[in-house]
Specification:
mainly alpha, Arc Repressor Mutant, subunit A, two-stranded parallel ribbon, 2 strands, DNA-binding
Length: about 120
DNA sequence: ACATTGACTTGTT
DNA sequence: CAACAAGCCAATG
């Protein structure tokens, strides 16, 4: 019977093996504590199979356990502050709790905190 | 199935 | 340095 690989995305399963969504979530979950990546970085890591915008969409409705706060924009700023779904400053607070230091202008140093898998 | 939106990025003016 | 435009893909109504 058709396994209906399905998009039961509503809550819990979302388990389509090989799905773009799952790959993105896997990457985000792989970000080590105290490091961050930007949306375009994920897009590149997946060989541009997904656009940075789409990454943001997935993270917007991502399941628990995914460290979405470790994903920032290319400017090293917390894009979550632009939304109303997430309290402003929350992402920054969470990152600071992991040892990520922010500058006075509210941005973080990507040269230092950007995750480089080769450096691990 | 179509139109709109959105936690983006890069390049041009 | 700031504003604008285009490319981009998935989710939502």
């Amino acid at each position: 019977m058709t396994p209906a690989f399905g998009k039961r995305v509503h809550g819990e399963i979302e388990g389509s093996p090989g799905s773009i969504r799952e790959e993105v979530l896997a990457i985000v979950s792989s970000i080590p504590r105290g490091k961050v990546v930007n949306y375009g970085w994920i897009s590149r890591m997946m060989n541009s199979r997904i656009s940075p915008l789409a990454v943001g969409w997935m993270l917007h409705r991502c399941p628990e356990g995914v460290p979405w706060h470790r994903v920032v924009n290319a400017s090293g700023r917390c894009s979550t502050d632009r939304t109303g779904d997430i309290p402003q400053g929350l992402q920054r607070a969470m990152l600071e709790g992991e040892g990520v230091d922010f500058r006075l202008d509210g941005s973080l140093d990507l040269e230092v905190f950007l995750w480089d898998p080769d450096d691990e």
